[in-house]
Give the backbone structure.
Amino acid sequence: MERVILFGGTFDPPHMGHVALLRAAIETVRPDSVLIMPTGTPPHKGGHHADARLRMAMCRCFLPLFDRMVISNDEIARGGKSYTIDTVRRLRARMPGAQFFLPIGSDMLATFRQWRGYRELMQSVTLVVHSRVGTDALALSELASSLSAEGGSLIIAPGEVLVLSSTEIREKMRRGEDVSALVPGTALEIAGQYGLYREAET
Ligand code: ATP
């Protein structure tokens, strides 16, 4: 059975925390392929700071992590709000023989029961959870067991923990701070080229 990692996010911009999560997921899952899925309008966020085309271009920074990786514009092209369950249903219809793995940060697991169709979602994919804070191991394993008890399939992926968010990066860039250690070079170049996250855009 083909093992596919589906990595969704706003990626506004992508940062080393995303890289740490994806790397941990790849090492744990050993997938056959990786699909990067930048969101259209994220259901839980107020708005974007970079447009979809540029967020998608910035995702090229993930390509060196794995050979068989594709950046998909499915959610962006669909427009409107993106719900992971809709994307997973479409992918399962398109690839009926595949097993899907969804890397998520521990913040997302904490609010997972608020996701649309979360039961169906966690029964049709395996969640691959990576800590965002490094101090939530106990809370994470408790949450993972309670979701497993509801029929969910979850793996906790060990790996480097980076306390970092796109919000923090946007703020730093707005203040003109150096973020070159926090954002992969390919993404930073595109952000620089298009003047993203500068004072006027935020
Ligand atoms: P924002 O600050 O704009 O809310 P974000 O940094 O949370 O953005 P997203 O693009 O929303 O980034 O995240 C996509 C996925 O990556 C989510 O599952 C999120 O939990 C995970 N993630 C983000 N940052 C980290 C991190 N530092 N470590 C592990 N996972 C992360």
The chain is about 40% helix and 15% strand. Residues 9-12, 17-18, 20-21, 104-105, 107-108, 130, 132, 162, 164-167 surround adenosine-5'-triphosphate (CB under 6 Å). The two ends are 44 Å apart (CA to CA). The chain has one domain: 3-193.
